[in-house]
Fold:
Amino acid sequence: MNRNKSQFIGLFIVLFALSQLAGLFNIVGSEYLAIGLGVIAASFGLYSYAYKNFYVGSWSLAIALLYTYPLISLLSDIKELSLWSLFLISTILGFGLELIFGKKKRSKKYTYTSSTNTNQHNHFDAEYKTTYVDDEHFESTTENIDNEEYVFIDAKLGDHTRYIYSTNLKEVNINTKLGQTNVYFQERTLNNDLNVYVSCKMAEVNLYVPREWRIKDNVSVTLADFNYGYRSSDDASNLSDYTVYLTGNITLGNINIHYV
Structure:
């Protein structure tokens, strides 16, 4: 999906640049480029729906309505289109569709490992995982997680902080929406490779990791920021033997890595 998504976004950006250029020089036909942008946005919205990415799909359709508004106004009685109303309605639509059809399946990219034993990838079966779920209302929570190998953090609508104390940690799965989640990895020593998967939608995730950790990332970013953090050249040359594989998806949010 990521390759097709990049093509949609790339084509949209090219047409957007051309439409702005046409408008700047008053070139006839710029309105057709705008309609083309609307068609691409609508196609990407339907494409996102097919993969159960309902929020992105709904917002894409809202963008399509904005760009095709001149044509729609000729065919209907709609005389004014409010950007705020479109965003609110599309967000509610995405939320409703997600409740009806379920969430998009998580990416399997987090299974980076040096081992070929596929049996060890069944980490997140119920009998093996430890889940920390926050109630779905605005609140601030803080919790310590001790001596776990596989951790799943589900944080929504609030400010949440988790301190992980474990020297045998193997996998961490973080799912956060509409809030801020802070995860502190308190143990500096890794005894094996660590997989960290983050799903971040309209939220912020702060990862506080030891400066000695070697991190490789493969994060999909959509209208979001991924800040890698800073560490000195001495720290960068003295990394641990094991690797942290950071993967996931960020949509309208940001992930920040803080080396401590």
Observations:
- DSSP finds six helices and twelve strands in the chain.
- The two ends are 35 Å apart (CA to CA).
- Residues 105-139 have pLDDT under 50 and may be disordered.
- Residues 2-101 form one domain.
